[in-house]
Amino acid sequence: MLVNQKGHLWFVLGTAGELIKMYPVIEKCHKQGLRWSLIHTGQSGVNFWRQWQSFNLPEGDQVNRLFDSRSDLRSSAGAAWWFFRFLLRSKDEVLSWQQVPSQGDRFIVHGDTLSTLAGAILAKRFGGLVHHVEAGLRSEDLLEPFPEEISRRLTSALADVHYAPDQRAYDNLQFAGCSGRIVGTGGNTLIDSILSVAHRELAEAPLTTPYVVANLHRYENLSNPARWKMLVETTLKAQELHQVVFAMHPPTEAKLAEDTSAKADLENSGVMLKPRLPFELFVMLLHGSEFVISDGGSNQEECYYMGKPCLILRDTTERTEGLGENAVLSQLNERVIDDFLSNYRSYERSELQLSQSPSQQIANDLMMVCTGIDLNQDDL
């Protein structure tokens, strides 16, 4: 049943990764009777919709496409062109929809992609309020990772409500003097996503022999020859220990299509190259793996909640989850990488249990600001 609601909720999302973390928030808002719609920015025109259907989310009038994209962005140049087109055409596109945002509507954006910043800009163009989920993360280097660090800082400057996943993020926002209200969620919404699919019956089971999951896709790694070489060499070293399942994002597929020598080396060594997997299957693969090699922040968080050893192939990370426990930040140092590969079992931990649902905290806050109904959400 719908509630008496002030202002419409617009979830502005562009990538499958954003959708995975926002799915439990959307689901809880829907169950609480809040009226909402999706604005898809067009950043991912394939994997986003596959994941949308996999989550059994509704289609029809609630779904709005900012641009009718039929592919996923595969390069930084493509992302830059997409964002430039957004700046020029987005408002005109929205004005052609049957339902148009109005003053006081609330726009929920997530994380640090260009879609995050795009959603915040779009909200301000229509006089809306910006609610930023996973706010306050900082790498302390404006250009690392690029453009994510710039995107999250600009979004913080535009946001009216900041949903901080932990105390450090909360403190970062306060220290920066960000305007707007800061709400602590007691954790990352990703844990709710993991729990939502943990007990589903899947048609495809993971491998029965020991294996490793590799997931490497960041633009700053793929576009830098020295970093890319290190990523390939580390994957080959892991293959000497166990079977490696390399789950590829579209930019990685494009990179391997370009670097045929690296692709041949990986395939000839026995590495299994697989297209990007649905979230449910990917979580199952992570659960069954010996350890994970990744350059993604979401994978770092997933491994932290699962207690899975994780080797992070990055110079820096804005996330603290798992560092000093199950996760090792390699800084692309060969000695650190080799030490992890030799001793990965020492990084195994128990699965993490949270006392409250971060997604429910956010949904409760949205209920309060839209209806005045207080479901006892507490700030940090």
Number of domains: 2
The CATH homology group name of the largest domain: Glycogen Phosphorylase B
Record field, number of beta strands: 13
Low-confidence stretches: none
Structural Rg:
20 Å
CATH topology of the largest domain: Rossmann fold
Q: How would you sum up the major sheet? A: 7 strands, parallel
Percent helix, as a range, is 40-55%
Number of helices: 15
CATH architecture of the largest domain: 3-Layer(aba) Sandwich
Q: What is the distance, rounded to the nearest whole angstrom, between the alpha carbons of the first and last residues?
A: 31 Å
The succession of helices and strands, N to C, reads EHEHEHEHEHEHEHEHHEHHEHEHEEHH
Strand content: 5-15%
Furnish the topology, listing elements before pairings.
Layout lengths: L8 E5 L2 H16 L4 E5 L6 H8 L8 E3 L10 H20 L10 E5 L3 H12 L3 E5 L14 H11 L2 E4 L2 H9 L5 E4 L5 H8 L13 E5 L3 H4 L2 H17 L1 E6 L1 H9 L1 H10 L2 E4 L3 H10 L3 E3 L2 H10 L3 E3 L14 E3 L4 H10 L14 H14 L9
Parallel strand pairs: 1-2, 1-4, 2-3, 4-5, 5-6, 6-7, 8-9, 8-11, 9-10, 11-12, 12-13
What does this protein look like?
- The protein is an alpha/beta fold.
- The protein has two domains: 195 residues, Rossmann fold (3-Layer(aba) Sandwich), CATH 3.40.50; 147 residues, Rossmann fold, CATH 3.40.50.2000.
- 44% of the residues lie in helices and 14% in strands.
- It has 15 helices and 13 strands.
- Strands 3-2-1-4-5-6-7 form a seven-stranded parallel beta sheet, with helices on both faces. Strands 10-9-8-11-12-13 form a six-stranded parallel beta sheet, sandwiched between helices.
- Strand 6, helix 6 and strand 7 form a beta-alpha-beta unit.
- Helix 9 runs parallel beside helix 11.
- The longest helix has 20 residues.
- The chain is globular and about 60 Å long.
- The protein starts with 8 loop residues before the first strand and ends in a 9-residue tail after the last helix.
